[in-house]
Amino acid sequence: MKYREYLDTAQRHLATCKKFVKTINESEISDKKNLLKDIYYLSGYIFEAVTVFIIYKTGYSHVRDLYKMQGKVFEPDKHDVDEFIKEFTQFTKVDYYPVYNGITKRIYLGSRIRDPITKKRLKISDDDKKFLNEFNGLNAIEQHHFVNLIENIKNDKELFDVIFPPSENVPFFVTPVTIEVEALIRGWSSGLRYSDAFLWEKIEKDLNESSLKDLLDVCQEIVFYSYQKKT
After folding, report:
1. Stretch 22-37: mean pLDDT, rounded?
2. I need a surface site. Which of 82, 114, 158, 172 has the fewest CB within 10 A?
3. What is the DSSP secondary structure assignment for residue 104, as one 8-state letter?
């Protein structure tokens, strides 16, 4: 999947959420709670998709400029997000696949390179494997923990300043949101798809029609911001 496709995905999810919201008042009271949950669950993927887009847009631009100084060419739109590009990971502290701490060593998940003809995945090189195994503080996209990715941006001044110049006003990424919306964003998990009672219990007190509307307004703002940065 190309990184720009994440932004289009976010837009589609947002449009779907808005359509669902219009049906809330037409729904039976017994169905409203489930509908709120469905909309909330989908909203998390809006945040995730926009976050991935922003990171790759910035990281790939950095790699392109770096390659240009070295007399090499890097064309961001030709690369899939699950490919391993060391310079991107060094700058963003992000990789597609997670790296786990084992008992005696770190291991990485997945091969990142495909044979251009057979499309079969090829093993990552020993040098790149060593780089990943020794990398500290690596964040993974595949785990769907988009809040961790956002906090990674906030905590890296160089990366933050590149993505968000002083004049930018992006909710949650840069500017505060309401307490309820903050709780909903931080409480989201891909595990909600399995109707995990504990996960839902954590956010149910903050999930209502009003807070969900506020959350979608935030989603609208960050999607709009990202489309401005698309070119």
Report:
1. 77
2. 158
3. S
